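Internal ticket - ligand job 697, flavin-adenine dinucleotide:
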Amino acid sequence: MCCDLKRRFLLLYATQKGQAKAIAEEIWRQAGAHGLEADMHCISEMDKYNLETEEDPVVIVISTTGTGDPPDTARKLVKKIQDTTLPPDHFAHLQYGLLGLGDSEYTFFCNGGKTVDRRLQELGAQHFYNTGLADDSVGLELVVDPWIDGLWLALEEAFLLQKKKEGMSSDAVSSSLYAAPQVGHELNSSSEVQNLKLEEERERCSDVLTQKLVDIHLVPSTRDTEPSLVHSVPPVSQSALNIPALPPEYIEVQFQDTHGENPRLSSLISEGTTFEVPVTKAVQLTREDAIKTALLLELDIADTVFDYQPGDAFCVICPNNVNEVEELLHILGLSEKGEYFVCVKVKQGTKKKGAAYPQHIPERSTLKFILTWCLEIRAIPKKAFLRALVECTSDAGEKRRLQELCSRQGASDYTRFIRDSNVCLLDLLQAFPSCKPSLNLLIEHLPKLQARSYSVSSSNLYQPGKLWFVFNIVEFPACPTRRISQKGVCTGWLAELVAPLLHPNKNTLDTKGGSSSSKKISIFARPKNTFHLPADPSVPFMMVGPGTGISPFIGFLQHRQKLREEHTDWEFGETWLFFGCRHQDRDYLFKQLRCFLENGTLTHLKVCFSRDSSTAEVAPPKYVQDVIRLYSKEVARVLLKERGYFYVCGDKKHMADGVSDAVVDILSMETEADKLEAMKILAMLREAKRYLQDVWS
Ligand code: FAD
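stdout (structure tokens):
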């Protein structure tokens, strides 16, 4: 009787960077093992499914992008379901389960998923399974894995309910209920979940391996008691392991000749027009003894149609580190093939569902080009990648450790030694020397190398044809899994690129002139931004930008100064800037702020220094959020009475939350409302786009 049960469900994913897709593919794979048919589609493929008539359960995996938006691929569907003329029972026939992906360090956590979930509920759709909200800041898998585990039972129940609705006899229902445990049995036998027993030989091999790694200082000699990337301890080392199914290979790579040219970088970008522009100035804004090094670069955009408003951000196309690419080629045994053009194809007859040509790999380019410009070789390997690497590892001890790291039993080891340690493919290949993956695996598992975003730090009105931006050179010190320190992919590359240009007179920001430079970088605009000056110049606004968070506000102030010069008859609202850094004499990035204050562009400048010692009787505030609290009356007046704007830019982890907490306290105190009410006022201000954040990690 159970064979009569319909065992299909619709599986939709809305992905921005591929994570939702990878999770949907995992669900698809596991569905097969549960004897279910997952009809999987990208949510944008609206010609392939129809929610209006869908009778089977629907599973949606959806990520969040930008400031809480659903991914671009979901835009069409979201627009469609947002139609206010739809009746409240429009989706009454629909049963669904939704898994949202997000990052709680951003304000609108999982908002893409929440938006779709809320709207489906409003239109009468029913949950057959509780919504899961997975948080990338602590590890998506903490929610994703148990959510997928529970999905199968929930689906079984949904199928039964569906049958009941279809008027099936109670006999049939009870016999199919009985069928559920059998599904569990199928999972064990055919899902490739493998029980691997610890073998004696493994101990021997592991010891040899660990000793080798101790020799090269990758693991401490306390190896017997302390787990590390390459070494496990009980219970993991003695457990039978549940490891994920081996992802089917789907890419085929052939080496061709060495003749021809690599594609232009613009062909790698689908988000808009790319501009190759010269760097005309580079200034180090921090002293040599500052903890972080901040650089200001000036780009010459005069000969392009690239346009921006102060507050906009743009993207820089950056390559991977040349030494890391060389080392990768060496480890893969492909050093001789770097300049060869490669032909990438989807493997004929692959078992991978929806296998498609990876859009970020050009049809014809050299191996070096692919590793340099297309693949994020520093990406933290996902468990599916580790699973695939197991098959390319010859040493039994190394193999076992890789199995552990992708297994359920080794989940906390994965989090500790891979995810939280920011281990990348190269670190793994050095730690597991018998692992020799083929190029196709890298193309299958490494994500697209993303362009990095930067906030514009200038005004096109103030200095036409020029664009400034400011960044800290990101530095990662050496650690047990990495013997040498590293710099951020983009900031490390930019720092090296502009080293010959670096202004000898530090902190000189003369906007005139500018040297001609042969150093060029490729940039493109970042769409959709609301972080702009108020349209009405008479409205007051407050800016909070410690560290490099000051960057867009320099653009705001330049713009405002120019407007004041050009429109002497206009009314201009007051402007506040809260700036903070560690030391007044080491990393006060723009001492020129005083000029804005002197010429009246900036009405109030409040600064604080978190690491300078003070001899004052009452210690001065250390952080911008502390300073803001000192001006609570003014904050409340600007925001509530004068309908002003409040801008926050910079570090999202430590600063932005501290600032919004301070604003909530101020609103609560000044309006005599309780904290919950004050939070609602802040939410309203955000909604009205009068409390705006541009934050990054
Ligand atoms: P990456 O190599 O990408 O490393 C960055 C992060 O990856 C680290 O913080 C860490 O979490 C992780 N990581 C990678 N490797 C390791 C490792 N070995 N050890 C430990 N952790 C590791 N930045 C600015 O400085 N100025 C701006 O004006 C600015 N504006 C932005 C505007 C927007 C809209 C956004 C989204 C971001 C902005 N950023 C800005 C951040 C910027 O885009 C980059 O993230 C930053 O410059 C780092 O890039 P990177 O390639 O050098 O670092």
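Auto-summary: The chain is about 35% helix and 20% strand. The longest strand covers residues 274-284.
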